[in-house]
Amino acid sequence: MAADRAAAPAATRERPLASTRVLDLSGPFGAYAGRLLSDLGADVIRIVPPTGDPLADDPPVVATSTGPASAFQWFVNLGKQVVELDLARPGERELCEQLFASADVLLETWGPDPVEVGGWERADVEARFPGLVMVSITPFGLDGPRGRDAGTDLVTLASGGLLALGGYPDTSPIAPTGGQAMLAASIFGAVAAIFGLIARQADGRGRRLDVSAEEAVASALEDAIPQYDLTGRVRRRAGDVPREAGTGIFRCADGYVSMVAGRLGTAKAWRSLVGWLVEERAPGAEVLLGDDWQSFPFRQRPEAVAQFAQVFGPFASGRTKAQLYEEAQRRSIALAPVNEIPDVLDNPQLAARDFFVPIHVPELGRAIQFPGRPYRLSDDPPFRPRVSAGPGPAAAALLPESAPLRPADVPALSRPTTG
Amino acid sequence: MAGPFTGIRVLDYCWVGAGALVTKMLADHGADVIKVESRTRPDNLRLAPPYRPGTEGLEGSGYFASRNSSKRSFALNMAHPAAPDIARRLAVAASVVTSNFRPGVMERWGLGYRDLVAVDPSIIYLSMPMQGDDGPHRTYVGFGSTIAALSGLVASAGLPGRTPLGTGTHYPDHVPSPGHALVALLAALYDRSRTGRGRAIEVSQFESTVNVLGPAVVAYEASGEVEPRRGNRAPDMSPHAVLPAAGDDSWCAVVARDDHDWCTLCDVLGLPGLPEDPRFATLAERKRNENELERLLATATVTRSAAELARALQERGVPAAEVRTSGQLIDDEHLVARGFWRRFDHPVMGSIVVNRIPFISNLDDPGPLAAAPLLGEHTREIAQSLLDMSEAEYADHVAREVFV
């Protein structure tokens, strides 16, 4: 924080999850959870089979000198140690068990059938490692009538209710992009992991936490649930048709802008917006000064929405995203550019805050910008994680000194470190 | 009933969106969250619909109730000269302070991190400014929807050639910002109980939301290419579509992860020749002929009920789901069986539904613990217990409109 940076000494301290070990055996629904825990200082060990990380094909996929690679994998594995273990080989399963014994948290996305980890079922792991905080991240949760259903990002967005709120009125519902249901499940997976650690501090007992991606999606429906509960009205997608004058996505000279002016205690913003349009002599703007237009219910009428668009549309189309953003914000109007990814990378606010972090990606042979962490902590050391290109240290090297099994006991485990 | 956060007290200045969901989670699991607002400046969300007909007003907002379960409400008029000192005393009685006000507001009241950490080094302080506490845009205003636009979430969703859409909601308020804030806040709570030391946490809602575009940012950095909008389609699976079903505005999401799913899908839909059709035999061919593929599938799905079709596909192992709306979710036997919804009797609104956090602990109460508070419902009890006020002193503060 600015104030802290100015006054605080350079001293930093350990991150909040230092000395906390996390085993990450998760697929795409849980992989970002381990990343978030790693960012907070946890020692995150990602265990993958010798055939490679199953995330390696997950989109977005980009070309590299060594073939296609997953940018999703790079992003979610940042800071993790990746360890290959073949649980079918003699000795390796025992090693895996010792890793379990050394861990505080286990992240897994196992299906309902107990096949993924050497034939273990969740209940076996729970019984053998009673102090473990075990986080299961699945599309629909571990029990209930649909607990065994197959889920993907799109399917959980549909069944959790967010898909119904997106899309144009004249098309099918359209989903948000980027794997949002999977990322939401992972974010709450990380919340669940620390929830479990805190609960364990009180009673010394491990926990089993059952995270449902569908429920993470169903937590994000804005006013749709209380609206149905209190009024019986079902909220559906509004798409590109604004619900009130002053709000919506509008075309401008070089793209689109998004604006909210007039609702939720922003009456001042509406007056400021009308003042701006009148000042700039936008054709038809004087109409908006009329008494009717001061009423929010009036501005919600379809005719008002259309009439406002006739004034604001031509005004915006003669100005760029950047011009509209700067001038609207000067007037305290909540307007923002609809940024493409390159615009985000060039954003002056993010640049001023040194948000992006250069990370060397071995497959590319160069450093590229990664988003910085989603929060800042006081007294925190600089964020300089490494991308895990392949298997890191031999698994046995990660065991505590007291572990009964050492690398020398299992020659197959003493693989060279390449990470 | 106790939860893992029992014994943690939070002085809460998180209003409206993202922040309120952070403190709801703490309150639902045992923390004593003291929400500060007043009749002179209520949380704006109290003024937002939906309302049950006949219960409009400050105590009737279903939107407010959905985000403020299990909290206590302390009606303190922060514009009164006596208020900041009272708030500082409450901050000392608490061990966590949260705010999503614009940078500078808490500091003006002497409630900034540096003010409070000087009194209590173990304080944990969460601020959730729109774009961060510093930088040239630190005072810029916005909502979840404008943050979604800034961060790239809007531009990527929709159809090519049409207005970009995003999620249709203020999504950053509901998952990225509260979720990332919770991750950091819980980690700070965990660490404090080991080390005795607190921290300041700043969540820029903009930066937090860029993280859920993280893979796209990294891909662009590697390739120099912006991915086009592509509706519901995916590069690595086909079909990956939302198809029409029987009935008004009824839809079913259908995904074939591989050729096996594709063959099973054709079987369930009664389209026996399709898997052998060279236009659709491989993923590459299905991607090339995706318009025609979706058109053919739609002719088969449009006569079937979305729920029945999704069930038939799931029984054969193919990922599918009805595109469900709010009413279907509240009544859904799976979510009900998992206890996702909890009903409370609210003194003004009557029976209301509130969701729990999206996970279940095998040993802890699922929460929420109580309905959202009335404005100032707990002012007297908080004044008398935490501020050691007598009944007369409390009444005096009411009369002077400090408590209002």
List keywords for this structure.
heterodimer; A: 419 residues; alpha/beta; Rossmann fold; 2 domains; six-stranded parallel sheet; 16% strand; elongated; disordered N terminus; disordered C terminus; B: 404 residues; formyl-coa transferase, domain 3; three-stranded antiparallel sheet; 12 strands
Q: What can you tell me about this protein's structure?
A:
The complex is a heterodimer of chains A (419) and B (404). By secondary structure, chain A is an alpha/beta fold. Chain A has two domains: 9-220 and 355-413, Crotonobetainyl-coa:carnitine coa-transferase, domain 1 (Rossmann fold, 3-Layer(aba) Sandwich); 247-338, formyl-coa transferase, domain 3 (2-Layer Sandwich). Chain A has helices at residues 2-7, 31-39, 71-77, 92-102, 122-128, 153-160, 180-203, 213-218, 224-231, 267-279, 296-299, 302-317, 321-330, 341-345, 348-352; strands spanning 21-25, 43-48, 61-64, 67-70, 81-84, 105-108, 133-138, 207-212, 247-252, 255-260, 334-337, 357-361, 366-370, 376-377. Chain A has a six-stranded parallel beta sheet with strand order 5-2-1-6-7-8, with helices on both faces. A three-stranded antiparallel beta sheet of chain A has the order 9-10-11. Chain A has a two-stranded antiparallel ribbon with strand order 3-4. In chain A, strand 3 (61-64) and strand 4 form a beta hairpin. The longest helix of chain A is centred in the middle third of the chain and has 24 residues, at 180-203. Residues 1-10 and 403-419 of chain A have low confidence and may be disordered. Chain B has 404 residues and is an alpha/beta fold. Chain B folds into two domains: 9-212 and 338-399, 3-Layer(aba) Sandwich (Rossmann fold), CATH 3.40.50.10540; 240-324, formyl-coa transferase, domain 3, CATH 3.30.1540.10. Helices cover 38% and strands 14% of the residues of chain B. Chain B has 18 helices and twelve strands. The longest helix of chain B has 20 residues, at 176-195. Chain B is elongated. The relative contact order of chain B is 0.14. The chains are: A alpha/beta (419), B alpha/beta (404).
